[in-house]
Write a structure and sequence with these properties.
45% of the residues lie in helices and 20% in strands. It is α/β, with parallel strands linked by helices and 295 residues long. Strands 3, 4, 5, 6, 9, 10 and 11 form a seven-stranded mixed beta sheet that branches. The chain has a two-stranded antiparallel ribbon with strand order 1-2. The longest helix is centred in the first third of the chain and has 23 residues.
């Protein structure tokens, strides 16, 4: 099946900008024209592509078709670079899944090194970021999964070290007799979101399985660190981000030296790998500077 480029452009713009009006303004046409193009594309594929709400969002099929349009633009951008052709179109757009701690710590450096690309990041837990690759929504992902998704190449990046940290006052209040199973079951912990299993992994490693402490949910890397320093709970913070607070005494480890490492990998669509060679190189260099070697 071949798609009309104008229809693909309309779909991508609606999903990027969130409304038919904004897409129309960006493409220099009327909202009615955008609506007609989306309707024609939906009739062609036989399924809804846009959830018409505020903001608009894509159905599963709509997200995949929009990604196809972005992939074509990336491939054309790569070809233009290889042939030293003048760039006349807007920068290509790349959709990547990345975990929040990598984004806060090192991934932005890779983005800054990559020219001619607009990034559209999907932030998800490193244990789940490959789901976006399997669904065909992103072209690459930072993930904890070493096994390649079908049709993808895997590049090892390094290990992200986590430390179980909290404030000194919290440690004295909730663990006066040391970090025991009984105390850990009562002491509030910090959890990034429902997918975050780092705290459970640490508890199972040091105290055994079956402990479910009360939890605060804070979907923010900086908020997570701030909450630990404020004594709101204990949680697994990236060692590099927690290092200054540990050095100053604002944070302490629940069990000194009990670090939890998470291997990270870069999975990239094999079809898109040549066009993404520049960003893959930038990701490897940024990760090398920030992460511990897997060796």
């Amino acid at each position: 099946m071949r798609f009309d480029p104008a229809h693909l452009s309309a779909l991508s713009s609606v999903l990027q900008l969130g409304s038919f009006e904004a897409a129309a303004a960006a493409l220099g046409v009327t909202p009615s024209a955008i609506s007609q193009r989306i309707r024609a594309l939906e009739e062609r594929v036989g399924t809804p592509l846009v959830r018409r709400a505020s903001p608009c969002s894509g159905t599963e099929a709509g997200l995949r078709i929009a990604k196809h349009a972005e992939d074509v633009a990336l491939l054309e951008h790569h070809l233009s670079q290889d042939l030293s052709l003048a760039e006349t179109e807007a920068p290509a757009r790349l959709k990547v899944a990345v975990n929040a701690d990598s984004l806060a710590q090192w991934f932005v450096a890779a983005m800054a090194e990559t020219e001619g690309v607009l990034f559209d990041l999907v932030v998800d837990d490193q244990d789940h970021s490959t789901d976006w690759l399997r669904r065909g929504v992103v072209s690459a992902a930072v993930t904890a999964e070493a096994r390649p998704v079908a049709g993808c190449d895997v590049v090892p990046l390094g290990r992200l070290d986590y430390v179980a940290t909290t404030s000194p006052a919290y440690l004295r209040r909730w663990f006066p007799e040391g970090v025991t199973r009984e105390a850990a079951a009562r002491a509030p912990c910090l959890v990034f979101n429902a997918k975050d299993r780092l705290q459970q992994r640490w508890l199972a490693m040091h105290l055994g399985s079956g402990i479910t402490p009360p939890a605060h949910y804070l979907p923010s890397t900086q908020g997570f660190l701030d909450a630990a320093m404020a004594g709101l709970g204990w949680g697994m913070n990236p060692e590099v981000l927690a290092r200054p607070a540990l050095a100053s005494g604002a944070l302490v480890e629940l069990v000194p030296g009990s670090r939890l490492d998470t291997p990270l990998y870069w999975q990239v669509s094999r079809v898109m790998a040549p066009a993404l060679r520049q960003i893959t190189g930038a990701v490897r260099r940024a990760a090398r500077e920030a992460l511990r070697s897997m060796g």
